[in-house]
Amino acid sequence: MTATLLIRASQVVAGDSSLHLAHLGDFALENGQSIHDCRVGYRTHGQLAEDKSNVIVVLTWFGGTSEGVESWIGPGKLYDSSKYFVVVIDAFGDGVSSSPSNGATAQFTMRDMVRAQHELLTRELGLDHVFAVSGLSMGGMQTFQWVVSYPDYMSKAIPIVGTPKLTSYDLLLWKTELSLIDTPAGMKAAADINEMHLHTPSYIAAHVHDIDALMKNHEDLLYKINIHDYASQLRAMIGHDIGSTATIHAKMLVVVSEQDHMVNPAPAREFASASHSELLALTGDCGHLATVCKSERLTHEVANFLQR
User: Is residue 235 in some structural domain?
Assistant: First the structure.
């Protein structure tokens, strides 16, 4: 075994939470284009079981990175690294994995994201099967794609406030943001539209007393994201549609927020019914961020599902 392989093997056995980059060479996209010297970022947490049976793959949300997901990982948290070996993978377009900002200008899809992640896990990390795949928001969308693209690769899947297919309302939101990016208002307007949909109108009316501060905070957050990276992930979400549920083999817990104004919960609800999957509906007026407001219940239900 070469020194590189020895280092890689040690990274897989014990997670150190530092960023690693896997280089996949020239990666062919489904549109016929390629990403030259494709790279996929990832971080690992916890200890890999000797039989490799405790791996949970976690996928990043829109505009987020594997570093940002770390607040959800740890003993007793949503992704419990005292029990599971957690592999967090950076999605294309997040500025860590291949993205416009680091030279990957070809347009990718959600299916391309997932196929690159599969190559990372199988070819680079030597994992031919994982216990579970999960993610929040766009991470939930990727999770839905995983169970269709690789139905036998995971035993369980937990898409959280994601969707198997965007509704017309979702498309209205994302296409509006995409069109705003190309105007003089740019990311500022896109950030304001984005913030408006994270919570429900009633939540904002009851809890936000300085709207200018709220807008500025979200604008500052989005200004940190490269505008071309942001647009590339928007386009991937706009084209997202997993199609039929006929090939799904994993046991699933589908998590929705009843008052989600950013990702309409109806398609995920319908998916859960059609696939005979378990459904967890988070209530209240926190909207898309019900995952934060109801984090204790979410963590409890996910832990129970993983242990069954």
Answer: no
What residues are paired with 160 via a beta bridge? 136, 255
Tell me the sheet residues that pair with 25. Answer: 38
CB neighbourhood size of 29 (10 A): 19
What predicted TM-score, i.e. pTM, was given to this entire model? 0.94
Cα–Cα distance for residue pair 272/54, rounded to 1 Å: 24
Expressed as residue numbers, the domain containing 210 is 168-230
The answer to whether the beta carbons of residues 89 and 62 sit under 8 Å apart is no
Same domain, 175 and 119: no
236 within domain boundaries: no
User: Does residue 280 contact residue 298 with C-beta atoms inside 8 Å?
Assistant: yes
Would you give the DSSP letter of residue 120? I
Report the 10 Å Cβ neighbour count for 32. 7
Do 49 and 185 sit in the same domain of this protein? no
Q: Which residues of the chain have pLDDT under 70?
A: 1-15
